[in-house]
Please model this.
Amino acid sequence: MCMFCSAVPTVVALGLAAYTEQQRKNKEALARGEPPPRPVVPAGKATVAALAAIAVAATIYHTQGASM
Model:
């Protein structure tokens, strides 16, 4: 398995952890009666962007004959 293909589960796991953390912070803020904090980058969109970049990189890597 190439480095790009093996990175997919890692990126998904990190994205899910970040999303869960953002949701936890939102719930805590709402419980205190405060507005939820606005994230700099939403975890879901960042994860999708990272997965798209990995998919493009893996496609290029596999079509250039560099796979083993």
Summary: The chain has a mean pLDDT of 90. Residues 3-32 form the longest helix (30 residues). The chain is about 75% helix and 0% strand. The radius of gyration is 17 Å.
